[in-house]
Amino acid sequence: MTTKPHPPLMKKHSQTDLVSRLKTRKILGVGGEDDDGEVHRSKISQMLGNEIKFAVREPVGLRLWILFSAVVFTVMALMALAFPNQLYEVVFDQEQTATSVSIRLYGGAILSLSLIMWNGLYTAEKVIIQWTLLSEACYFAIQFLGLYQ
Protein backbone atom coordinates (compact mmCIF):
# COMPACT_ATOMS: atom_id res chain seq x y z
CA MET A 1 0.00 0.00 0.00
CA THR A 2 1.34 3.24 -1.02
CA THR A 3 0.10 6.35 0.50
CA LYS A 4 -0.09 9.51 -1.40
CA PRO A 5 1.67 12.44 0.23
CA HIS A 6 -0.74 15.09 1.34
CA PRO A 7 -0.41 18.50 -0.23
CA PRO A 8 1.15 21.07 2.07
CA LEU A 9 -1.32 22.88 4.24
CA MET A 10 -2.12 26.33 2.94
CA LYS A 11 -2.16 28.96 5.59
CA LYS A 12 -4.76 31.66 5.20
CA HIS A 13 -3.26 35.14 5.13
CA SER A 14 -5.90 37.39 6.59
CA GLN A 15 -3.97 40.50 5.55
CA THR A 16 -4.43 39.68 1.88
CA ASP A 17 -7.93 38.28 2.17
CA LEU A 18 -10.21 41.27 1.57
CA VAL A 19 -13.33 39.70 3.08
CA SER A 20 -11.46 38.83 6.27
CA ARG A 21 -10.00 42.33 6.48
CA LEU A 22 -13.45 43.86 6.03
CA LYS A 23 -14.89 41.67 8.79
CA THR A 24 -12.03 42.58 11.12
CA ARG A 25 -12.47 46.30 10.47
CA LYS A 26 -16.21 46.04 11.09
CA ILE A 27 -15.59 44.32 14.41
CA LEU A 28 -13.09 47.01 15.40
CA GLY A 29 -15.48 49.72 14.29
CA VAL A 30 -13.13 51.42 11.83
CA GLY A 31 -13.41 52.03 8.12
CA GLY A 32 -17.10 52.85 8.13
CA GLU A 33 -18.73 56.25 8.30
CA ASP A 34 -19.72 57.68 11.65
CA ASP A 35 -22.63 60.02 12.38
CA ASP A 36 -20.73 63.04 11.04
CA GLY A 37 -19.90 61.27 7.77
CA GLU A 38 -16.20 60.88 8.59
CA VAL A 39 -14.35 57.70 7.67
CA HIS A 40 -11.80 56.79 10.32
CA ARG A 41 -8.78 54.79 9.27
CA SER A 42 -7.92 53.62 12.77
CA LYS A 43 -9.42 53.37 16.21
CA ILE A 44 -6.97 56.02 17.44
CA SER A 45 -8.15 58.59 14.90
CA GLN A 46 -11.72 57.67 15.80
CA MET A 47 -11.03 58.34 19.49
CA LEU A 48 -8.97 61.51 19.00
CA GLY A 49 -11.01 62.98 16.21
CA ASN A 50 -9.89 64.47 12.95
CA GLU A 51 -7.72 67.58 13.22
CA ILE A 52 -8.41 68.68 9.66
CA LYS A 53 -11.92 69.82 10.49
CA PHE A 54 -10.46 72.21 13.08
CA ALA A 55 -8.02 73.77 10.63
CA VAL A 56 -8.59 77.46 10.08
CA ARG A 57 -7.80 79.19 6.83
CA GLU A 58 -4.84 81.51 7.01
CA PRO A 59 -5.20 85.12 5.92
CA VAL A 60 -4.12 85.70 2.34
CA GLY A 61 -1.15 87.94 3.09
CA LEU A 62 0.17 86.08 6.14
CA ARG A 63 2.83 84.03 4.34
CA LEU A 64 3.72 87.02 2.19
CA TRP A 65 4.22 89.19 5.29
CA ILE A 66 6.38 86.56 6.99
CA LEU A 67 8.48 86.23 3.82
CA PHE A 68 8.88 90.01 3.57
CA SER A 69 9.83 90.23 7.25
CA ALA A 70 12.33 87.40 6.96
CA VAL A 71 14.05 89.01 3.96
CA VAL A 72 14.18 92.49 5.56
CA PHE A 73 15.47 91.15 8.89
CA THR A 74 18.12 89.04 7.12
CA VAL A 75 19.33 91.95 4.98
CA MET A 76 19.49 94.31 7.97
CA ALA A 77 21.32 91.71 10.06
CA LEU A 78 23.91 91.05 7.37
CA MET A 79 24.44 94.78 6.86
CA ALA A 80 24.90 95.30 10.62
CA LEU A 81 27.36 92.41 10.84
CA ALA A 82 29.35 93.22 7.70
CA PHE A 83 29.18 97.03 7.51
CA PRO A 84 28.37 98.42 10.99
CA ASN A 85 29.85 101.91 10.41
CA GLN A 86 28.00 102.47 7.14
CA LEU A 87 24.71 101.29 8.65
CA TYR A 88 25.15 103.70 11.57
CA GLU A 89 25.78 106.59 9.18
CA VAL A 90 22.69 105.75 7.11
CA VAL A 91 20.37 105.41 10.12
CA PHE A 92 21.57 108.34 12.25
CA ASP A 93 22.98 110.71 9.58
CA GLN A 94 26.22 111.20 11.47
CA GLU A 95 29.56 109.53 11.59
CA GLN A 96 30.13 106.95 14.31
CA THR A 97 32.72 107.81 16.91
CA ALA A 98 32.34 104.81 19.23
CA THR A 99 33.17 101.16 18.63
CA SER A 100 31.04 99.08 16.29
CA VAL A 101 30.58 96.14 18.69
CA SER A 102 27.11 97.27 19.75
CA ILE A 103 25.95 97.43 16.13
CA ARG A 104 27.33 93.96 15.49
CA LEU A 105 25.48 92.67 18.56
CA TYR A 106 22.34 94.28 17.20
CA GLY A 107 23.00 92.49 13.91
CA GLY A 108 23.31 89.17 15.72
CA ALA A 109 19.99 89.72 17.50
CA ILE A 110 18.30 90.66 14.23
CA LEU A 111 19.80 87.60 12.56
CA SER A 112 18.28 85.36 15.23
CA LEU A 113 14.91 87.02 14.67
CA SER A 114 15.27 86.45 10.93
CA LEU A 115 15.88 82.74 11.57
CA ILE A 116 12.64 82.65 13.57
CA MET A 117 10.89 84.30 10.61
CA TRP A 118 12.30 81.77 8.14
CA ASN A 119 11.16 78.95 10.41
CA GLY A 120 7.69 80.49 10.65
CA LEU A 121 7.50 80.71 6.87
CA TYR A 122 7.98 76.98 6.26
CA THR A 123 5.83 75.56 9.05
CA ALA A 124 2.18 74.60 9.13
CA GLU A 125 1.94 74.67 12.93
CA LYS A 126 -0.39 77.42 14.07
CA VAL A 127 1.44 77.88 17.39
CA ILE A 128 4.80 78.47 15.70
CA ILE A 129 3.27 81.06 13.38
CA GLN A 130 1.67 82.80 16.38
CA TRP A 131 4.98 82.93 18.26
CA THR A 132 6.72 84.19 15.12
CA LEU A 133 4.31 87.09 14.80
CA LEU A 134 4.47 87.75 18.56
CA SER A 135 8.27 87.95 18.49
CA GLU A 136 8.09 90.37 15.57
CA ALA A 137 5.52 92.51 17.39
CA CYS A 138 7.70 92.56 20.52
CA TYR A 139 10.70 93.62 18.45
CA PHE A 140 8.77 96.49 16.87
CA ALA A 141 7.38 97.57 20.26
CA ILE A 142 10.86 97.67 21.80
CA GLN A 143 12.21 99.44 18.73
CA PHE A 144 9.43 102.05 18.97
CA LEU A 145 9.94 102.61 22.70
CA GLY A 146 13.71 102.89 22.29
CA LEU A 147 13.44 105.31 19.41
CA TYR A 148 11.25 107.85 21.20
CA GLN A 149 13.02 108.15 24.54
From TrEMBL:
Segments passing through the bilayer: 62-83, 103-121
Source species of the chain: Sinocyclocheilus grahami (Dianchi golden-line fish)
Protein's cellular compartments: Membrane
Membrane topology per record: Multi-pass membrane protein
Superkingdom field: Eukaryota
Name of the encoding gene: LOC107554464
Keyword Membrane attributed: yes
Pfam families: p53-inducible11
Name listed for the protein in its UniProt record: Tumor protein p53-inducible protein 11
